[in-house]
């Protein structure tokens, strides 16, 4: 077997998996108002909360590096119990989506569809008096949010709430409002993970009480993840996501095999923060580690990788060519 490993040329000739910036999407946190300019995120070195103009500049940079697209998360100026800023046509995501599409038309803009960043309680749906989340009452609000994103110019809407039936509700509303061509990237296998901590700081979405285990998945359940993905396909999902990514390569592969649809893997905030912390301490080679992680996700079956490393990875890959 070693004969074909002897030189870089031979290794390249038989390499089974490719990795490039066209496989990557860069997540961005967009502020509704940013009077003081970009806001650093302490737990995610190199990542900032951005105003609209800064988000456009970041999108231009990503596009110039060959990154396929951006994923927008809104940080609203005001919150309420139902998260009404989520579907506000003048909201952060809506304004950023329109501005980015005007400035960089060929860059794909995906938008996170959820209520957690916009609600005072930090949960992903409407909360009843007993503290539980009302699944069915949430669907209408998610569908309204998705339509507002499509109307603003989003190329892809990505529901991350994990309410049952939300893909079907969003598909129906998009179709009825004239957005039948807008694809849905469903966060189908989204686990109640310990890897989300830095994101919750960045988006201000930590639950005010309880946790999300009643609607996000148990990390122990692999077969259930496949069932979730199949249900979303039946409801009209065009792409499927597995989140987190690094500890879930088996499920990226299983979901890909079961659905045959394009699969996205979300290389989440905690995974990013771990690499940054270890590299800062001198324990890891950041470049080599990041590229190995991203390659492993492609090898597992991910067609698309949503990653905070996208810009750095694109630069490093360009240097290899």
Plain-language structure description:
The chain has 11 helices and 12 strands. It has helices at about 10-15, 50-65, 90-105, 135-150, 165-175, 195-205, 220-235, 250-260, 270-280, 285-300, 310-320; strands at about 25-30, 40, 50, 70-75, 110-115, 125, 135, 155-160, 185-190, 240-245, 265, 305. Strands 1, 2, 3, 4, 5, 8, 9, 10, 11 and 12 form a 10-stranded mixed β-sheet that branches. Helix 8 links the parallel strand 10 (about 240-245) and strand 11 (about 265). The longest helix has 18 residues, at about 135-150. It is globular, with a radius of gyration of 19 Å.
Query: What is the total domain count?
Result: 1
What portion of the residues fall into strands of 2 or more residues?
A: 15-25%
Shape: globular
CATH 4th-level superfamily = Aldolase class I
Task: List the SSEs and their pairings.
Layout: H1 8-13, E1 24-31, E2 39-40, E3 48-50, H2 52-64, E4 69-75, H3 92-103, E5 108-113, E6 126-127, E7 133-134, H4 135-152, E8 156-159, H5 166-176, E9 185-190, H6 197-203, H7 222-235, E10 239-243, H8 249-259, E11 263-267, H9 269-280, H10 286-300, E12 304-307, H11 310-320
Parallel strand pairs: 1-3, 1-4, 1-12, 4-5, 5-8, 9-10, 10-11, 11-12
Antiparallel strand pairs: 2-3, 6-7
Question: Main attributes?
Answer:
321 residues; alpha/beta; TIM Barrel; ten-stranded mixed sheet; two-stranded antiparallel sheet; globular
Concise synopsis of the structure shown:
The chain has 321 residues and is α/β, with parallel strands linked by helices. The chain contains eleven helices and twelve strands.
